[in-house]
Amino acid sequence: MKNTNIQEGIILIPDFSGFTEFVFNTKLYTGEYIVRQLLSTLIDVNDQYFEISEIEGDAILFYRYDENPSYESISDMLWKMRNAFNRKIKELSKSLSTKIDLSLKFIVHYGAFSQYNIGNFRKLYGKTIVEAHQMLKNGLAEQPSYALYSNSFLENSNNQETESDKDQHRLSEVGMIHYFESLN
């Protein structure tokens, strides 16, 4: 059986750091409202560049079929998402008179995957999807606000990283972590 639906593409997963504590320490309605607002902000900033495969709790599984991914374009997108996320947290904290202790991390991966439909749902399938989810659960980052670019993405992107070395940490077995705030 041959699957002609397999294509190369980017997997992007923005995920909230601090989510479990947030859920346990926030009233149900308030927490649901805050999470809905934050996820909507990320989706709006995406501006349909990526397709959405699914939303699970505090994470969005974005994808884009792309044979020539651009590090610069993706990096710019992540900065916009992170800045909009932080602005929304400030806005919600002020309007709800509450402290929202959430930050944002991103996983950026590249590889082959397929897609299938079940009812109204489109599901992604493949090793690339599993690897991206595994990268979410890492003990590699030294602070909660970061982007982890996989080796696969870096090797397939059509331009090299251009950001400051002080905010990057190379991990030969995984890829590169870019911190949004400078490490002290």
From TrEMBL:
One Pfam family here: DUF2652
Domain of life from the UniProt record: Bacteria
Record-given protein name: DUF2652 domain-containing protein
Originating species: Chryseobacterium ureilyticum
